[in-house]
Amino acid sequence: MKFTALGGGIPLGGSHHILNLEEGRRVAFDCGAIQSQGGKISAPPIAEGNIDALFATHGHFDHVGMLPLFGKMHPETPIYGTEVTRRFASMLLGDSLKITRKKIEAGEKNAQAYFNIADAIRVLTRHERYKQVLRPEWFELKPGWKIRFWPAGHINGAVSSQIITPKGLKIMHSGDISFTNMPTIKGADIAPDFRPDVLITEATYGDRDLPNRAAEEQRFVNRVIEVLRRGGQVLIPAFGITGPNIAITLARGLTAAGIDTPIHIDGMIRKAARIIYGSSEWNAENKSVPFPDNIICMPDGREGYIHRQRLLSGPAVILASHGMLEGGKIMEYLPTVLSNPLGAILIPGYQAEGTGGRKLLELERGANFLIPGFERRKGEVVSIYCDVERFYLSSHASGPELANWIEELDPKVLIVVHATAEGFAGLKRRFQERAKRPLMIIPAFNGEEISIDECLARRRV
Ligand SMILES: [Zn+2]
Fold first, then answer.
1. How far is CA 413 from CA 145, 201, 255, 379, 445, in A?
2. CA-to-CA distance for 395 and 403, rounded, in angstroms?
């Protein structure tokens, strides 16, 4: 048995993992896009040869962004995933195809079309290529091979994959995982009937202690209230998929504080909110989560323009995408809020190097911020007079949470993927410090084949 991270091992990037099981069976996990500085999108190396199934662990772009390319190269391979993952993938792939087409038309050299809309539709068609997994129940992939998806927290529809081979070996692939409850997502828990021999886990924040999510949410809500009370606007750059949960947290927080200012959502967050609202699978009670009444979707077109002008003339709370200030609807609000000393831009999550969000965090008050031109809008330079603050509303497990979880699962072999070199080293250090019992921890460097049989044999010695 062998495991290879073709992408999304160490270092992070578009995820594409291959597990060569016994008797020539091969399964893949995810096929995501790599996003580099300057918005360039590329594909990880795609597995060659027979693949029996691909498991789509969740709908983030770095996990599903190249599914249509995989589908083109493996036209017979079924894709298994949840319905929410399918719908998020459809939303992100549609958006990415649109952006790529615009870039190609504008003559941008680094824009490349890896697939077309027909490839995307083909790979996401229900009951044909895309097999929906509706519940965390065991099913047979091939005679003797048992598979189960287990809720992984992180984002709506995210799952870990559990596999039992005909010889009884238990393997678990975490996908991206979080143990914290969010308004529409229950944090991952441990299946009472499954302890893997081999655990393949993400370790995005393996080296980090993150603030307690509930405490950080309260700090976030308090800050929003403070800005509203002084009469400013709060602008929150958020990602489509994680934005709705932040909006609900805020909406509940404001209601609890007796504040009736509504939360406005704009850009892709609206679409994701509709997907989450309409889905009842995989969340805590298997029923859809009602969105609070004080969340308002911004309209498009001229109506949207008028509404926006009105909003920006007084205290308001707006969540808009793109989450790293790389274009999108948020740009429509940015000049007014940036130049308002009463306003605030509250950044809920990680900002990659080279992005607008990272630059904004690095600049001092009074400095000039370049808002790049996009679509019909011209670029402009605006001086920063509002507050800018970073919060840590992460949807990945922290180092200590991962360590506790792994310790409880007690695998014989641990393979670490979806991590920086520091994330891996941090997680490994935690185990060395605890040193209750030896655990074989293997880093899955991208492109390197790991022999699971050898690891298991060495462990027995
Ligand atoms: Zn993810």
1. 20, 11, 47, 52, 16
2. 16
**Ligand 1 centroid – CA 207 distance (Å):** 18
Report the separation in Å between the CA atom of 460 and the middle of ligand 1, taken as the mean of its atom positions: 34
CA of 98 to the centre of ligand 1 (A): 22
pLDDT at position 335 over 50: yes
Class for domain 213-390, per CATH? alpha beta
Residue 15 C-alpha to ligand 1 middle, in angstroms? 10
- For 2-208+395-460, CATH gives 3.60.15.10
Whether 285 shows a pLDDT value over 60: the answer reads: no
Q: Tell me the CA–centroid distance for residue 176 and ligand 1, in Å.
A: 5
Question: Looking at this protein, which amino acid is placed at residue 58?
Answer: H
CA 203 to ligand 1 center in whole angstroms: 12
**How many beta carbons lie within 10 A of that of residue 294, not counting itself?**
19
User: Length of the chain, please?
Assistant: 461
In which band, very low, low, confident or very high, does the pLDDT at 287 lie, cut at 50, 70 and 90? low
Please state whether the predicted TM-score (pTM) of the whole model is above 0.90. yes
Q: Look at residues 202, 240, 161 and name the one whose alpha carbon lies nearest to residue 397.
A: 202
322 CB-near residues (< 8 Å, 6+ apart): 237, 239, 267, 268, 328, 330
Dist. CA 429 → ligand 1 center (Å): 24
Ligand 1 centroid–CA 14 distance in Å is 10
Q: Is the pLDDT of residue 327 over 60?
A: yes
Whole-number Å distance, alpha carbon 103 to ligand 1 midpoint, is 26
pLDDT tens-digit readout, 24-66: 899 999 999 998 877 788 999 999 999 999 999 999 999 999 9
Burial 172-182 (b: 16+ CB within 10 A, else e): bbbbbbbbbeb
Calculate how far, in angstroms, residue 56's C-alpha sits from the geometric centre of ligand 1: 11
- Whether the Cβ atoms of residue 24 and residue 10 lie closer than 8 Å to each other: no
Distance 230 CA to ligand 1 centre (A): 36
Domain boundaries, the chain: 2-208+395-460, 213-390
- C-alpha–C-alpha distance, residues 418 and 177, integer Å: 11
pLDDT digits 0-9 by tens, 76-116: 999 999 999 999 999 999 999 998 898 888 888 888 899 99
